[in-house]
Amino acid sequence: QQEKEDLQGKLKLREHLSQTAGKSEATPGPSKNTDLEMKQLQCKLKNSNTEITKQSTTIKSLKEQLREKEARIRELQAKFSRLDRDLTMKRHLIEDLRSHLKANQENERTSNETLESLERKIKALAEDKKTSIDSLKQRLNVATKEKSQYVEMYHKAKDELEKKDLKLTKLERKMIETECAMIELKTATSQQLHGLARQSARALETLQKELLLTSDKVEEFKTFVKTLTRELHDSVQELRTKIELAKKKGKMKACKKGLSQECLQLAASILNVSTTDLYEILQEGHDEETAKTKMGFEKDKEWLQHIQKLLEAQ
To answer: Mind naming one GO cellular-component term on file for this protein (predicted)?
Structure first.
């Protein structure tokens, strides 16, 4: 790698020199030498690169071998640790068995000593029993005295309880009296509520009657409006038909006055049409007016429908 770096440095120097040589036109000879050196250096670089690749492959293979050996060593170490554990466990078991033996021997000695000490204690207990019986007799005398005191306390407590029972009975009587008063109050309030309910029911009945009257009036008003609108509609339609008829009659008279029979025949001969067809052509203008009147009729119908919708709504 160091050789590679040195060669790269030399190459850079040579390139720099070749650039300077290209700039200066006076010295053409050394530039060729530099080119040759450059090629040699490039060849060396390629060789060094190939050597580096070979060495890297060998390093990789060695690393893989190392890993395999390390894995093998770990397995052997694990086996060794297991065997070492087994050995230590066996040693511990042997030591435990020896300690158990020693403990059993010591237990036998201690049991013999305890038997002797128990015999001594039995003798001491027999002596203690005598002393304890004497002390118990003294305690009995004290307990009898305390019992008499407690009996007196019991009688006093009984008297106090009887007094409290009398107070409780008085309180219970008072409670019953208050409950009776509460029942009377409830009955009075319920009666008042019933009276109020009756009054409200009467007021509701009067209101319902008024509502019925108002609804009757509303229905009368609706019928009046419906009849009025129908009559208006009919009268408007009659007026429109009359106006239309009057207009038609006036125009027909004007046409008859203005046009003579000879003029009509002349016009028919020019247009190659019969006189009846000519009358129809002349009446086409009147059709527009009839369409307008029809539009007016449709608007009147829409107005009627609008009023009916308003009446049906609340």
So the answer is: centrosome
